[in-house]
Amino acid sequence: MITVLVPLLQASCPPQGGGYGGSVELRMPDQEAEELGGAGLLRSALRAAARQLAWKVETYAWVGTQHGTMVGVVDRRDVPSRFAKAVRDDMALRARAAVNRVGRPGAPAQHASAPAEADPHMPTAAFRTAYEQAQRSAASSGDSSRSHSNAPGRGDGVRQDGGV
C-alpha cells in the first residue's frame, strides 16, 4: 500500500515547490476502508509513505462522516524560501477552489471545471486503481507479503508526528 501512496503524495506537491507543500486525502465508504484494513491502517500507510519523502507529517482519520471514511496526510515541513512562493500560491489556489466548490453564503454554488478526482490532493480513484493493480500483481507473482492486514483500526482526530 505504501508503494502505491508515494507517487500520489509526490503528485500532490505544487509544481516548482521542490517537493514541499503536499497533502493527500482519501475518501471512501466506511465498508471499503474496513476492507482495506481500516482507517488506522490507511492512516499508518499514509504516514509511512510521507516519511519516505522526508515529510514532517500531520495525519487525520475520521470514520462515519457524510463522506464515509476520510484519511489524510499533510506535509508540515518548513518550506525553504526559494520554494515558499510556489507553495503559498498553490495553497491559495486550493483554498479558492474549495470555496468555489462549496459556494459563498447567499450565492449559487459554483462547480469546479475539473472533476474532484482530477485534484491531486484527493486521489481516491487513482489510489483504488493503483492498489488493485498492485494486489493483482502480487497475487500473480505469489507474493503474499504485499497483501494488506485485516486488523481492525479506527482513526480519530489529528496526530502530528515530528519524525522525518
From TrEMBL:
Extent of Low complexity compositional bias: 105-117, 134-153
Region (Disordered): 99-164
Protein name: Uncharacterized protein
